[in-house]
Design brief:
Blueprint lengths: L16 H9 L5 E4 L13 H11 L3 E4 L17 E2 L4 E2 L2 H19 L5 E2 L8 H9 L4 E2 L7 E4 L2 E3 L15 H9 L1
Parallel strand pairs: 1-2, 5-6, 6-8
Antiparallel strand pairs: 3-4, 7-8
Length: 182
């Protein structure tokens, strides 16, 4: 589940518990792709999201790192971060590594978690990103690259599948479920 606590949340209280409960009722687990910087932004000053994320890990769900702040350092766009898709720009290793380490620090300080999975904003990365992720001990990636395979030595990729549950109807449920799983 990407973009936990997006910047455009306009309703309160925002939380993950109802979705988590629905998944658990069906025997599933959730990978929460958390934007680390959100944990220290105004929308989380209450600490509710932080507590919910700590609680979800205790129940066996996973925290994945979703970039650092979801803002591209080149163009300030919010649809990507590690690779600037609007200007076709590859951020250097030092820039990507700094964002990754800042995010790791926030997740450790806020949640006590060091994730093994990484979801880049926009699911866009380059080979520099792969090196950064492996160097920071990530094992799993969700990018636009080849899926269910090692995309780089030591880095297994599970491509995003665009399974939008809010678009499901009785008539398309089976087809959409099959597309999401295979």
């Amino acid at each position: 589940m990407d973009d936990i606590q997006s910047r455009n949340v306009s309703y309160l209280p925002a939380g993950i518990t109802p979705f988590e409960d629905a998944v658990e009722a069906r025997g599933g687990k959730v990978t929460w792709a958390v934007i680390p910087h959100r944990l220290i932004e105004n929308m989380n000053t209450s600490g509710i999201l932080t507590q919910q994320l700590i609680s979800t890990v205790a129940k066996g769900h996973e925290i994945a790192q979703h970039g650092y702040n979801h803002i591209c350092p080149k163009c300030n766009g919010t649809s990507h971060e590690y690779y600037c898709s609007s200007q076709y720009f590859n951020h250097p290793y030092a820039v990507q590594n700094n964002m990754t380490q800042l995010g790791l620090d926030l997740l450790l300080d806020s949640l006590g978690q060091i994730p093994k999975s990484f979801v880049p904003p926009g699911h866009q990365v380059d080979t520099t990103s792969y090196r950064v992720l492996v160097d920071n001990n990530f094992e799993f990636l969700s990018s636009n690259g080849v899926t269910k395979s090692y995309i780089y030595p030591g880095l297994f990729n599970l491509r995003q599948h665009k399974e939008y549950t809010w678009e499901l109807t009785q008539s398309n449920y089976s087809t959409k479920l099959s597309q999401a799983l295979f």
